[in-house]
Design brief:
By secondary structure, the protein is an alpha+beta fold. The chain has nine helices and four strands; from the N terminus they run H-H-E-H-H-E-H-H-H-E-H-E-H. Strands 1-2-4-3 form a four-stranded antiparallel sheet, with helices on both faces. Helix 5 runs antiparallel to helix 6 (about 110-125).
């Protein structure tokens, strides 16, 4: 299936087949796709909690709004997508040191240039803590898009969920230095998933795209 066909066939799953589980190697592949997601100046301001056991699902369920219970209870896996509280000096240095370790810099000047760019853009996007938080959330949504599209390409159904109690989720998971901002469920559609049988609806391209 090509990418255009994937975009046409992917949809938001409402009902999952609880008996079907995603193979471990595909979960590993999706985790690698999350790891490789792009972010502004490679800031990677995220952490992902992957829930794939009945015990894990039961643990996070109190933070899920009741109308989304079936998505979490019946799917194969749930991913809680979180942002870092702080992009402090130690973390920014850690990022640049990792890039250096991975061979991205030819010279010390290259490394300094990346460090300066990283500090500059973080500063520009952080006039207030709220501004920085919203900027970090936008990076997580990029990762979400990667996850949903990649899952569809692998024949895995998905649902993006904002209907949950962020504060309660943070408490349940004991998050330290992170805040949950998104949930995504992954699995295989049930036979009674009516959304799978409905035609996709999008505004026409001439309404949403301008070519210059």
């Amino acid at each position: 299936m090509n990418m255009v066909e994937i975009s046409k066939k992917r949809y938001t799953t409402k009902h999952y087949d609880k008996s079907k589980k995603i193979p471990a190697e595909q979960i590993e592949a999706l985790c690698t796709i999350l790891q490789n997601s792009p972010s502004s100046v490679n800031s990677q301001p995220w952490h992902f909690v992957v829930v794939g056991t009945d015990e894990g699902r039961a643990k996070i369920l109190p933070a899920i709004m009741d109308f989304n219970f079936p998505r979490v209870e019946d799917s194969s896996h749930t991913v809680i997508m979180c942002v870092r509280d702080d992009l402090d000096e130690a973390y920014l240095k850690h990022l640049v040191d990792q890039e250096d370790k991975d061979g991205r810099f030819r010279t010390a000047e290259d490394k300094k240039g990346q460090s300066d760019a990283l500090h500059y853009f973080v500063s520009v996007k952080s006039p207030t803590p709220k501004d920085q938080f919203e900027w970090k959330c936008r990076q997580v949504y990029i990762a979400l898009g990667n996850l949903l599209f990649a899952a569809a390409g692998m024949g895995i159904d998905s649902t993006a969920i904002e209907g949950f109690d962020n504060q309660k989720m943070d408490e349940i998971l004991g998050l330290k230095g992170y805040k949950s901002v998104l949930v995504a469920t992954l699995g295989y559609r049930a036979e009674n998933d009516s959304n799978a049988k409905r035609p996709k609806s999008r505004l026409p391209q001439e309404e949403i795209i301008t070519h210059l």
